[in-house]
Amino acid sequence: MSDSLLITALCASLLRSVIVCSIAGLLLPLFSGWIQRSGTRAARMTRELLCVLPFFTPDLLTGFHYRLTASAWAGISGGISYVLLTELLYGILQLFRAVALGMLLRHIIPAPTDSSEALYSWQLLRSRIPRLRWYREWCRLQLAGPWRNPLLTWSLTAVVIFQEFETAALMQIDQHPWSWSVCLFDAHAAWQPLSASLQLAAQGLLVELLLLLPGLVAAGCSRNSREPQPDTRGSSVITAAGPTVTAVLLVSLSMTLLILTPLVTSAQPALRGIRFITADPVTVQRTCVSLATSVACSVAAAVCALGIASRMNFEHGWRSGLHHAITAALLLPGLAGPLILSLGLQSLFQLPLLRPVWDTWLPQLLGQTLWLLPRAFAAAQLLWTAERGESLHAAALLLHAPDSRRRWFAAVLLWRLQDLPLMMALLLLTQWAFWDVTTASLLHPLTFEPVVTRLYNEMHFARTDALLGLSAVAVAAPAACLACGAAALLLKRLHRARLQSARTQKNPGP
């Protein structure tokens, strides 16, 4: 692949990412205001779920659904009309994903402690301090206060949109929509030398660092505590922002484009495809083996990533410069994206010392774990809060209550407060790892074909019932496995409560 082609794709991807995420940043107050105007807690949670749900839809399935649309436009209009329509559709899909991710980040990024009072006090000192020093400190206070969370949200969202691969790869007809990740992946799959791919990937990494720069500057200027909590200061400002009707229309359009339309149009063919797959024993055996192996590797990566992220989140006692350096070193490879990360691991496992383990599950497991670490770190921020710890401690004390009904209630409460959120976090991480095409394609063992790579390859050629059925089974398999795990944890909690009741009856207190 020529450098000029990659530079063109890089510029187009960068421009799209900047435009999409800037528009998303303007829409976030509108969505937040709509959520704040909820009358009840249930309505608030429902609106929050509707806002963030589009981010969790697999990009591969979204691209597969709209591939026919892009192909039809290419056949009907062609030329510049097709280019504009395809770029517009892809941009709208990424816009709603960016808004969903932005809403999710608003709940994860802690609120800054530098408030408007500090800015007001600094305004009073304007006439007493040299102008250059005053403006320098004013910028620092803005970056550490009002600008901090918007810049962090914009940077992280822009990097994610810039890295997007699966939807662009399946929608792409005649190189549109432009995507640097698709150009680089296709060139590497066409036996481009690894050294050349790494040189081209370095250019993409440089662009990602530029996109991260505003957020890193804002984070560096901030002195806030790391206790995760919603940005309530910002939400009080945005309560009156934007009409409700506009927010409802945008949320409805987002749900329709990314979830409802693919689900409704694919449900009946998928059921026919499942019946077709189950009618052939050879296909059933092949599918079960591939699914079981892929799910097992994804679950292992999710468990490793969440375990490491939880450990980083729990280490309150030694949060020094060394701790921040180790955290950054663990999170930055995942922030680079699965394509750059996988190419880097490919080169690493070609070294003589690591080459014997290349054709094993270790490269794919390591790649998926590193890619999941930033997302697992965000999940850990929501899981292990001080408020949740106090509730868990109170529920654990109820396990020793003399009344058996209270002990059973405590067991169910512990499951709801600890086990169920943990399994939900593992489910999301597992789904992300499972549907990551680039890591599975570049790092899987040579003797095994993951389900997602098989789907990705076949989705380029036809939209068959069997393919839709396999996609539906692939979506349900991780959820079914982790649902069984959640049920097993509940039974374990109840069994412990029953044993505690039996011990209490044998040894009654005085």
TrEMBL record:
Membrane-spanning residues:
6-28, 72-96, 240-264, 284-309, 321-345, 413-435, 466-491
- Keyword field: Membrane, Transmembrane, Transmembrane helix
Specify whether Cytoplasm is a keyword of the entry: no
Return the protein name: ABC transmembrane type-1 domain-containing protein
